[in-house]
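User: I'll paste a sequence; please echo it back and then give the predicted structure.

Assistant: Echoing your sequence first, then the prediction.
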Amino acid sequence: MILTPSITFGNVIDKLNETGRFTKLNETLTKSGLNNNLKGNGPFTVFAPLDDAFAAISAKTYYGLLNEDNKDKLIKILGRHVFLKKITSSEIDDEIKIKAINGEEITIKKVNGIVYINEAEVVKADVEVSNGVIHYINRVLQPLN
């Protein structure tokens, strides 16, 4: 009998912490309280902006969002990046529209084999976690209207 090792994936937050490439995202998730949700059962799909993606946001704006008075705004921004179902890149043929957890309709499309969510490019897709999947993106999602 051949035993195959079982592979255990951590949850979304475990994986974001483990990589060391999401310190700003982790900080905002903690400040908003969404980090606790993303430790839950899911399934979740998270389009996770890398630390470099936050460079397009001024330091004043970024640190302003961490202020307790702006918690609702922070949750709305982060909510664009999270979906309550598992969406892998292989499921995207052309273009789909789907509601994020903040209620906004978000466009996910594949062009020449590259997945985009609104204006952000997925730079690493389909990182499996115990409660869903994470896609690394190069921009923080802004409202389109």
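Helices lie at 12-19, 23-32, 34-37, 59-65, 71-79. The first helix runs from residue 12 to 19.
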